[in-house]
Sequence to fold (233 residues):
Amino acid sequence: MKSLSPVRKDNISNQVFDQLLLQIIEGGWPPTTQMPSENELATILNVSRVSVRSALEKLEALGLIEKRHGEGSFVRKLSAESHMNSLLPMIALDNVDLLDVMEYRKILECGMMALVVENATSEDLQILESIIIEMERTKDDSQMFAVEDIRFHSEIARMSGNSIINKVQGILKVILKASMINIIPVVGTESGIYYHRLILKAIAERDSKKACARMAEHLDVNIHGLKKLIEQG
Fold:
């Protein structure tokens, strides 16, 4: 286990959190291990118990540790899926490059089309159709249209049947909500409706290659719109 070290006096709580998180990630405190007490950590790190408690609360909120009344804090045993539950919210709190997010979406959403096409049910197709109808109904309202646009992509992620894809899409939805409202006036609502119908048609035809191609074209339009927004400042 790497030794903990006293922290600087600026951004104390964040530094405490970073050190404790690193100990967990690198296995310094293996799963089910009891962590040092608040008093012990405060002494080792040369900080107040308030800073330690704040860091522990953040780790608990992320699902990385659990506090047991009268016993202390213990590192949770996490599966790959629960790691996504714990760590993905940190991405949402970080400063992310939206262009990177959009490019990642293109890779993710095209790549999962084989699973989507394989698993899609008639009920799934009806859900996508109903979302497109709502997109048509709200095409003059950028905010509501953005909600339906993101919902369409979230449903496709769900249809993949892969829990990790679904969770990643869920966190991207949080990041993208505000930006999509700004992108839509640039690219136009008709473009979204047009491509979503083509994507749905390809899924209904069980053609994963065509579905991937249509999704790529659709996201390329949005990426171009985002670049245009960035250029405009």
About this structure: The chain is about 75% helix and 5% strand.
